Amino acid sequence: MEIPAVNVANSYGDLLPALGGSFEQLFQPSVLLLLLLGVLIGGIVGFLPGVGALVTLTLMLPFTFTMSPFESFALLLGAYAVIATTGDLTSILIGVPSHPDSAALIMDGYPLAQQGQATRAMGAAVASGTIGALIGAAALALSVPIVRPLVLELGSPETFMLAMLGVAVVGSVSGRSILKGVIGGGLGLILAAVGTNAQTGVPRFTLDSLYLIDGIPLVPIAVGMFAIPELVDMHRRRTSIALERRTDNSSAWQGVLDTFRYRGAMVRGSLIGVGIGTVPGVGGAVSQWMSYGSAVAASKTPEKFGKGAMEGVIAPGACNNSKEGGQLIPTVAFGLPGSAAMAILLGAFLIQGLNPGPEMLTTHLDVTFFMVLVLVVANVVGSALCFPLLKYIALITFVRGELLVPFILVLVLVGAASSNGVMEDVLLALAVGVIAWLMKWYGWPIVPVLLGLVLGQTAETNLSISINVHGATWLYRPVVLVLMAVIVLAVALAYRSRRRGMPMDGIEDEGEDSRSRPGTLIGSAFVVLITLAVLAEASSFTFAARIYPQIIAVVTLVCALLLIGRTLWVRNREEASDDAESHGTAGSPASYVDAGLAYLSGTDVLTPAGSAQAVSHLVETQEAPLAHDVSTKRTLSGFAWCFAAAMVIWVVGFVPCVFVLTGLYLRFVAKLSWLKALIIAVTFAVTFDAVFVEFLRLQLPPTLLDVPLL
Amino acid sequence: MRRSLTAALVMSLVAVAGCGGGAEGKSAEPKSDYYRGKTIKILVPFAPGGSSDVVARLVARELPANLPGKPTIVVENLPGGGGAIAFQRLARGKSDALTIGVATSGNVLRHLLKEPGHDYPLETMPLIGAVPGTDVTVVRSAIAKDLDSLLKVDDVVTGGNTAPGSQLALVHQFGTALWGLKLKQVFGFEGIGDVATALERKEVDMATPTDIGYIPTYKPLVDSGKFTAVWQDGVVEASGEITRAPAVPDIPTLHEEYKRIKGTEPSGVDWDAYRILVATGTVASALFAHADTDPKHVKTLRDAFQKMAASPEWAAQTQKSFSYQVAVASTEAGEAALKEINATEPEVVKLLQGSSKK
């Protein structure tokens, strides 16, 4: 049962006429108009945290019933292509990911915005995204004749190995202590095991809650993890995002030039996006971190990462737009959606009566090529449209933080709630926000947790299928062996760049603050408790359901105990705060990643060795350090505002919450006059209602009191 | 072309106004109706994009024109808990006939098996209408080129499926058991498309897609000779008879084949369990209203649903999307299937409950 050779021959033979046909379709007025419309809508919606591609495409789907396939894909793909671009801009501007796929842009993009270089960073993100999209589209076009045999080579064992490759990235994003990174990744994998186990039907770690029975949703986690700590810190800091109060004298063109200067990072990011995008289940939430990690590993100046390295923006930016071409490959060739947004696109295929599979590469080849063209045109048009606006968009980083907080908070909460439309989504995002804040405060990296959560299910499922189907022989499959070698290489590269990083003056000593050691101990103790609870609960499962979480929990537990042991017994401060591998390598790229993470939460929330120094000089120039008690009080009140907002949503709903929160916050925190606060609150509430309730028709949580408002 | 231009125009207007329309339907219709100017919400218990979602959206699109007062209908995707979250919300909501829930066969089955969270009163919720579905059993042609040669296979046959306890997994298990086939099911595939690819990769030997998933993904590979469709489970008619589903009229039902090959009517508790599973397939996508809905509104909705199914628009759109005209179950057939499901013997429920966990 080999792939019929005739498919391959046909697709080569039909290549040119099909390409011609797709060009012809592109220049139909209705197609061009819909493409433009898609680009505009996608460009605007892409900015909104948590709403993103899924809601937009879902909303558009019903309109495509009466369209031709070309019109339908012009609209949907046009929007989808641009959402990735503007989503990246949100990460850069306010340090909040508009969706999980753009979180890596925060690492260096947000520090650049804080340095008053938002325009340049956005210029680089847009430019690298455009070129990435072109590379992705080219990959899609070139892969047409070989795509089916190619994807058929990627079975469950290969998918599992790719997930492991994603896990190996933990090394690049785990800060100074690899041990802490591994523990974070382990916790993420445990979180991914929550819910009904796909292999056995056994509900695991659901705390008897219906909400958790399908597992932990990604969007509230990703949004809460990055956004809530940043919001609380904006509330605490009371400054604009750009800490240096001067105008942004960077230009978007600089960003474009940077993209070409760091073309290695751009090309690698693009290729990783295409390659990983091709694998359903691994996808965009991982490939961005892989490309970020590759940029760190390949950089000659790894110490700049986390402080605003242009490569740290360019690599994931390129990856985010190239992955669409990659994700389309399995969607078109097999009907396997690589992401939730691709699943909706698959719905559009169905509506058109198109069968993803061999037909798309033979009789409907013109549609496939048309999609390539749409990706290219939408990206170019979208970038051209937003490019001249970047300068103005960047002005948001010069607005007083207090004026932004209520708006961002509302967008974050509505983004979280839109994943299941229940109150638990909102509460989960807030709880994760508190935990993420504590982790940053105590010097624990948060990105490994996200990676573990994203990859956990793919890893377990594909490992289980591999063993069930192939026995132990899956280990000897050629692609598996190649991937093993790649993983070893990736780890070695990350390690080498860690060692190579030049220590900055005195950084090892300066950054070691009083929180590091108790933070390590308290955190590890919590991890021990969690893993013991997991092991206790898992003992009641059937063997097939418990073996995987048990292995993860034991490894995590051992790492946590090791960390406690080291911290307690090693007298030397330097060694005590770290594990053996990173000893003496402070100032390595990883420590700057930490610095970046810490940066997100401001100067006096800095944690591990090295970070404080890396950042403090930037901040002290324009901001007098806050007194400790003021800082604590404001942090607590920041969380209080978040929870109060959630309570209002729970009792009377989102629209009243928008009004009350905005009005009170602007009056009492931002100190606007009652009149101004009231006017802004009413305007925002009405706009919110119009956009989210009436137009996007988001499913919002049911309220305790049924108050018909507006 | 012109229609889509209009659609584009409407969308851009909507986008600019930032407001979801709904004011245009105030033209001349004399009767004053309950639904005039109102919005009906259809709760869909799965993520957007799949074939069942497309069916629900198609209903949302075509139903308003057939309802007096031409209300707006919106779809809300509320995935989670195998339909529990959407149906809990429906059951706890208002009985004003403005919220309708779509149940899948898995939904109905989980309610029957009393799985956690599925304690909403489905048996008293009025059925508005149902799109019946069937499951098709597909095998790699390298394993068997027809059912008769499949039955001679002595080795264990590996079946790929999404999750244990799903309607598809159970119907596959009980169907193959009736033939005495040795089946090992591998779970964890994302969807029936992934199983098709696993079949192509020879990772598994057998799959059981629904008809609506079979047609786009499996049928081309069956037509090319790579896969073989060996039987379908069929749908239960109002008379209680199992017949071929209209989507796949060429594939015989297991019941037909059983009589042909074994020469007898199937019987026994395994057969009873299998029959119940086929009945849940008959309500593959079923619309339910709140238990306390005014019977007047139920009738309005039911009539509109049947009128919609008979409309040329429905025929044309389903032909375009699914390459066959999707027929809906008559109200009687849908109610008969639900009645049979609700009257399942406790012994059969227990058997199915025991089979739904690995």
Structural class of chain B: alpha/beta
Query: In angstroms, what separates the terminal alpha carbons of chain A?
Result: 62 Å
The percentage helix of chain A is over 70%
Helical content class of chain B: 40-55%
Low-confidence stretches of chain A: 1-11, 502-513, 575-623
Shape of chain B: globular
* Portion in beta strands of chain A: under 5%
Sheet having the most strands of chain B: 5 strands, mixed
Overall, the morphology of chain A is globular
Helix-strand pattern of chain B, N to C? HEHEHEHEEHEHEHEHEEEHHEHHHH
Largest interface here, residues on each chain?
Answer: A-B, 82 and 83 residues
Sheet with most strands: strand arrangement of chain A:
1-2
Number of helices of chain A: 33
Biggest β-sheet of chain A: count, sense, barrel? 2 strands, antiparallel
The chain-level mean pLDDT of chain B equals: 88
**Beta-strand proportion of chain B:** 5-15%
Spatial strand arrangement across the major sheet of chain B: 2-1-3-12-4
Provide structural commentary.
The complex is a heterodimer of chains A (710) and B (358). Chain A is mostly helical and 710 residues long. Helices cover 71% and strands 1% of the residues of chain A. Chain A is built from 33 helices and two strands. A two-stranded antiparallel ribbon of chain A has the order 1-2. In chain A, a hairpin with a 6-residue loop joins strand 1 and strand 2. Chain A is globular and about 70 Å long. With 358 residues, chain B is an alpha/beta fold. In chain B, 44% of the residues lie in helices and 15% in strands. Chain B contains 14 helices and twelve strands. In chain B, the strands form four sheets. A five-stranded mixed β-sheet of chain B has the order 2-1-3-12-4, with helices on both faces. In chain B, strands 8-5-9 form a three-stranded antiparallel β-sheet, with helices on one face. In chain B, strand 6 (157-160), helix 6 (167-179) and strand 7 (183-186) form a beta-alpha-beta unit. In chain B, helix 10 packs across helix 14 (346-355). The radius of gyration of chain B is 21 Å and the shape is globular. Residues 8-30 of chain B have low confidence and may be disordered. Chains A and B meet through helix 3, helix 4, helix 17, helix 23 and helix 33 of A and helix 1, helix 2, strand 2, helix 3 and helix 7 of B.
